Amino acid sequence: MRRKQALLVINPHSGSAEAGSNGIDEELHRAGIETKSFFPEDPQRLSNVISAESDGVDMIIVGGGDGSLSGSLDAVLSAKLPLGVLPMGTANDFARSLGIPQDLTQAVSIIARGQTRHVDVGLVNDRPFLNVASIGFSVEVAKFHRGERKRRLRILSYPLSWIDAFKSHRPFAVRISHDEREMTRRCVQLAVGSGRHYGGGLTISEAAEVDDGWLHVYSIEPLTPLGWLRLLPSLKFGTLDKHSEVELLRAQSVRVTTKRPKAVNVDGELVCYTPARFSIRPKALSVFAPSQQSE
Question: In the chain, at which end, N or C, are there fewer CB atoms within 10 A of the end residue's CB?
Fold first, then answer.
């Protein structure tokens, strides 16, 4: 019987890549999957490697965090091959949304079983994303959640980054046009999600699923420190509808405009500025996922 062929691309700078990537080729080989493997030193080249090397393989396997997956997404979609996920990042929110375990041996087993789930892909100014695009407070968090702090503390660096971001963030006015409606808000945070989890385990909405065909949007009004403390559990569990300071909606398309250009954080990376257009491609990506969640 012909063995499956995989293009394996690992970001060697992801949080656990150095420790976790040893033996991955052997694990996949034992699972009946032959690999041609690449470990590009420049993470920006992940997408280039996939575009150049995906001919003749049955699947693409990406080892890294949410930023690695998001940055590779355009090339994966163009290849029209199923995606295997090896969670090696700090947050691994996309893997969490799909129920893919952090243990790499178990993640390889899921790929080997061959069960797939078709998930939605969000677009911001035609750039695809998997989890969430956000403006405001989370962009400040991302500025602090990097470098030596991120490398040494990993997921534990998020609380420190939140504290630093709270000291520096500023409210802003935003116009949100969605489907056939328009609204203006003064807020500190706006998020547009195509997935379920983001930001190290936060939940965009308890109703959000990775394959529901909707963009889930929330905006948060300016809050006091006590107000943020009250809000944090709802950010974790996706129950923001319990708070009057939060506006929630779901839409097929959204346009966001601000008076001054504001940076947009996409799956943990700063990629563009407002004005920004958001849309959804329902079930555009096939991903190996646990069988109980497969289609």
Answer: N
Contact 117, 287 (CB under 8 A): yes
When pLDDT is averaged across residues 179-186 and rounded to a whole number, the result is: 88
46, 19 contact by CB (below 8 A):
no
Q: Which helix (H) or strand (E) holds 139?
A: helix 137-144
Give the pLDDT band of residue 45 (cuts 50, 70, 90). confident
Q: Are strands 263-266 and 215-220 parallel, antiparallel or unpaired?
A: unpaired
Query: Which are the contacts of 96, defined by CB distance < 8 A and separation ≥ 6?
Result: 196, 197, 201
Distance between CA 95 and CA 129 in Å, rounded? 14
Residues 6+ apart with CB under 8 A from 256: 135, 174, 175, 176, 177, 190, 192, 274, 275, 276, 278
Classify residue 237 by burial, with Cβ atoms within 10 Å: 0-12, 13-18, 19+: middle
Q: Is the dihedral of CA 259, 262, 264, 268 positive or negative?
A: negative
Q: Rounded CA gap, 123 and 226, in Å?
A: 34
* pTM of the predicted structure, to 2 decimals: 0.87
Extract the tokens encoding 121.
């892909």
CA–chain centroid gap for 213, Å, is: 16
11 SS3 class: coil
Q: What is the pLDDT averaged over residues 225-245?
A: 91
CA distance 150 to 156: 8
| Count of other CB atoms within 10 angstroms of residue 170 | 9
Predicted confidence band of residue 229 (pLDDT cuts 50, 70, 90): confident
Crossing angle for the helix pair 46-53 and 66-79, to the nearest 10 degrees: 20
